[in-house]
């Protein structure tokens, strides 16, 4: 009889311990977008933003569950599911209409690029691109930032940034538009040389970070917000940034 009582107490303690120490898992939707986030050949999540989430984990009351998928699906799922997060996402007016901003961890620079052997191409303001041909990823955001419409005679719309870069490399266009992180990754992917290209005009400085569903529980959102704040205050975010990116001075954008 005593043996059964002891066994019951042990089992009860196990269940009590599990209920006390169990933590909720919260989904963080994202896409494959190195160097911010990707999966290595072992299936492990790696990248700048991944390191930030790993550093934030000890400061959170929940466990981070990263789910990587195409951006359109990640965006849709995060938009439809309260108490989830999405990263690495730009802080734009259009996206703030669908999500609640949690916090930024980096600022990307959107630039117009030319070949380095084309010093004759000079841009001082956005409207100067009217004098040249431009390969552009078809998106409302890009058109809005460059103050263009979809019928501009000198614009060649492409399906991918690598397609635009290839057109520039083979002198089929004078200019392309990309952020400096994506541009550097595309250069590496295509096997080109970074020094063969020059950023000729900064367009916009875009905060990149984490957003959540508009109906996410405020305590959950604040928990994540405070974790990011802690990483900024204790210097951990700066250390992670130094590991992934070279020091730089963010240029002023030109209207």
Please provide a written account of the structure.
This protein has helices at 2-21, 48-56, 71-80, 93-96, 140-145, 161-169, 180-190, 218-233, 236-244, and strands at 25-30, 38-39, 45-46, 63-68, 85-90, 99-115, 134-137, 155-158, 175-179, 197-213. With 255 residues, it is an alpha/beta fold. The strands form 2 sheets. It has an 8-stranded mixed β-sheet with strand order 4-1-5-10-6-9-7-8. It has a two-stranded antiparallel ribbon with strand order 2-3. Helix 2 runs antiparallel to helix 9 and helix 6 packs across helix 7 (180-190). The model is unreliable at 16-21 (pLDDT under 50).
Layout of strands and helices, then pairs:
Elements (H helix, E strand, L loop, with lengths): L1 H20 L3 E6 L7 E2 L5 E2 L1 H9 L6 E6 L2 H10 L4 E6 L2 H4 L2 E17 L18 E4 L2 H6 L9 E4 L2 H9 L5 E5 H11 L6 E17 L4 H16 L2 H9 L11
Helix pairs in contact: 2-9, 6-7
Pfam families: SBP_bac_3
InterPro entries: Solute-binding_3/MltF_N
Organism: Shewanella algicola
């Amino acid at each position: 009889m005593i043996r059964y009582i002891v066994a019951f107490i042990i089992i009860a303690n196990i269940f009590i311990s599990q209920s006390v120490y169990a933590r909720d898992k919260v989904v963080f939707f994202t896409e494959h977008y190195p160097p911010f986030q990707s999966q290595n050949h072992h299936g492990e999540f790696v990248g700048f933003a991944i390191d930030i989430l790993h550093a934030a984990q000890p400061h959170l009351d929940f466990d981070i569950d990263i789910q990587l998928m195409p951006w359109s699906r990640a965006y849709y799922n995060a938009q439809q599911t309260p108490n989830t997060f999405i990263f690495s996402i730009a802080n734009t007016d259009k996206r703030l209409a669908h999500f609640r901003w949690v916090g930024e961890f980096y600022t990307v620079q959107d630039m117009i690029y030319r070949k380095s052997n084309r010093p004759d191409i000079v841009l001082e303001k956005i409207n100067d691109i009217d004098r040249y041909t431009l390969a552009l990823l078809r998106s409302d955001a890009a058109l809005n930032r460059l103050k263009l419409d979809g019928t501009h005679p000198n614009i060649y719309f492409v399906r991918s940034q690598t397609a635009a870069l290839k057109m520039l490399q083979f002198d089929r266009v004078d200019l392309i538009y990309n952020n400096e992180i994506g541009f550097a990754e595309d250069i590496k992917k295509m096997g080109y040389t970074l020094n063969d290209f020059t950023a000729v005009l900064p367009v916009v400085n875009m905060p990149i970070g984490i957003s959540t569903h508009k109906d996410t529980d405020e305590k959950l959102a604040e928990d994540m917000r405070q974790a990011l704040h802690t990483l900024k205050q204790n210097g951990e975010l700066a250390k992670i940034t130094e590991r992934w990116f070279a020091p730089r001075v963010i240029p002023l954008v030109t209207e």
